Amino acid sequence: MHDETLQRDLGESEEALQGSLSQGITGAPDAVESRIRWLVAHRLESLATAAGGWDWLFRDPRDGRLWELTFPLGSLHGPGPRRMAVIERGIAAGKYARTG
Fold it and tell me: How far is the C-alpha of 4 from the C-alpha of 97, rounded, in Å?
């Protein structure tokens, strides 16, 4: 069965998405984690990476907002759940090699 809510563009009022995994960093993704993966694969434009590839900068082509993908629990074994949040252009320009 296919969950249509997972394949949903970012809304104007959304500013952050925090995924989680069952059983810590090795378990199955929850709906938010799955949605982040779908957005990255199908909707957002990849612009740059930082922190040795652990932090990613994306642009939403629909509204031009910049989104940062991070792995807050990346210090644990495995990347852990993803977090995406809107990032200001000035902060992105300071952190990433190019902001597109």
Answer: 35
pLDDT digits (tens, 9 = 90+) for 24-68: 556 678 889 999 999 999 999 999 999 888 899 999 999 999 999
Which one-letter DSSP state was computed for residue 10? P
CB 96 within 8 A of CB 89: no
Q: In what order do the strands lie in the sheet with 55-59?
A: 16-18, 83-86, 66-70, 55-59, 45-50
Instruction: Answer for the pair 60, 42: CB distance below 8 angstroms, yes or no.
Output: no
The DSSP secondary-structure symbol of 9 reads P
Whole-model pTM? 0.82
